[in-house]
Amino acid sequence: MKGAAQLARRAVAAGAGAALALIGPATVTRAAGPGPDLERFYQQKIGWEPCQPTEGQTGELLDSVRGMECSTLSVPVDYADPGKGDIALALARIRSAATGADRKGSVVFNFGGPGESGVDGLAAFRDVAAGIDKQYDLVSFDPRGVARSSPVRCGGEEEAARFDDGDRDAPGTGAAAVAEAKRTAQACRTKTGPVLDHVGTVNTSRDMDVLREVLGDEKLNYLGISYGTRLGAVYASQFPKRTGRMVLDAVDTLRGSAEQDALAQTKGFQQALDAFFAGCAQQNCELGTSPEQVGATFDRAVAKLADGKTVTGSDNQDFTGDDLHSAVQSALYSQASWPTLSAGIAALLDDDDPTVLASLNPGAGTDDAPVGNSDEAMLAINCADDPVRPADPAREYDAVQRQLTRESPYFGPGTAARAVACAGWPAGTDYIRRIDHPGAPKILVVGGKGDPATPYPWAQATAKQLGSGVLMTYEGEGHGAYAASQCIRAKVDAFFAAGTVPPAGTSCPAEVPDE
User: Fold this and answer.
1) What's the pTM?
2) By CB distance 3.0 to 4.6 Å, which of 129, 154, 435, 472 could disulfide with 376?
């Protein structure tokens, strides 16, 4: 689900490049439990050393890794047969200053994707999570198949990105899309090797339980954002008695098909774009004084870069229609980016200058790109989590393409590729779709009414499927409410601090970001 990736990439940019340090001793508390002998994993000793910045890292990027500690965690490639070998997962930690009775252990984070680096994301999230940091260590990791943790490789991000939600260069016909999906699947298998069969959320959830044990926590305290909510729900289902204080923000669907997900997100992004038009007009922005005028100005910008046309920026880089699409989509994840989007569109039209728009794209303006394979990992993990393969994928693609284009002429084209992305992959697990009242303790489920990437009905459905989910609603725009809303953040922090569960039906008003 690309929505998570966009959120994390923007958050990750400040923390990109936190390199791994290698390891010494620590302590553990519990054994693994029944099943194959996993004792050596649950009782392993790790140590923490200062994270090392990447070569040439300066300024805010360098500052972001200071005070962070890094390590690795050994987990089995195959939990059913631990003798097949190990994977080293990259870990990062921000140590709490709390001591004695004030220290409550750790909170583990997943920032989404699937496919985003938790090591990179943690540095960028540290200020947002300052309320949690008062009592807990903040911990994250690169999940198996991601970034530094035995990364999935498919020959390059471009191949996997074809099956993203919004690649406007995706194949135009179902037959072409299916053929390309099968070529990509084969490339992933050839270049990644046997570990490809063991990526996916069910195995990553088991890795988190090993991490919980090695951190010395009896129960897992966890905050998952976007795809991270899928991971949290799976953990709560697999290990309900080991689930501690868990928060799921910007909630992924557990039961939607690939085509249903594509349709829901296409509608969500179109609604967010319409909200941007209305908000821009209300603020008397440079694009128009009514939503209709702002929309017409936006259409002029799209037309300026249609049919392969480009504009060259001050950095001598060509800015394309795909770059514009990426910038617009990225801006719609956070209302704080709307002024930049409107200023960038005006500069593009008035001065042929794409620099402001280019700044919205992931990794822009940084010397260090994240250690990433996010599109490749996203493809592999989503296919591992999806048990359904269309009987006639080419026909499915053509039908979905027509429907999506009707819903949104701007966001619909290219999104249909997601419906056939897993052609050529074996059917994935049906475990996630079968989650139903697993018996975990109260879980805070946070949904945003204006979230384009994880529509609000997904939060409602997931809360019901968990049984113990307590739904909190954010009335504002954007993807992820914990970072956007002081009201939501205060309630989540209180839950981690004291176990305070808000009343069912709790709602927080929209908060307009400071410009």
Assistant:
1) 0.90
2) 154
Cα–Cα distance between 298 and 302 in angstroms, integer? Answer: 6
Provide the token pair at 163.
Answer: 């099956």
Integer Cα distance of 153 and 164 in angstroms: 16
Is 479 an active-site residue? yes
Name which of 284, 285, 306, 287 is nearest 296 in CA terms.
287
pLDDT digit string, tens, across residues 171-182: 568 899 999 999
226 is catalytic: yes
Distance between alpha carbon 79 and the CA centroid of its chain, in Å? 25
Which has the closest alpha carbon to 102: 74, 124, 133? 133
- How far apart CA 486 and CA 511 sit, in angstroms, is 8
Catalytic residue among 330, 479, 485, 493: 479
Given the residues 226, 237, 342, 374, select the one marked as catalytic: 226
Phi then psi for residue 125, to 5 deg, are -95, -5
Q: Which of 451, 468, 485, 493 is catalytic?
A: 451
What digits encode the pLDDT tens for the residues 460-489? 999 999 999 999 999 999 999 999 999 999
Is 323 one of the annotated active-site residues of the chain? no
| Joined tokens for residue 269 | 């992004």
Burial class (CB in 10 A: 0-12, 13-18, 19+), 399: middle
Name the nearest CA neighbour of 229 among 110, 128, 341, 343. 110
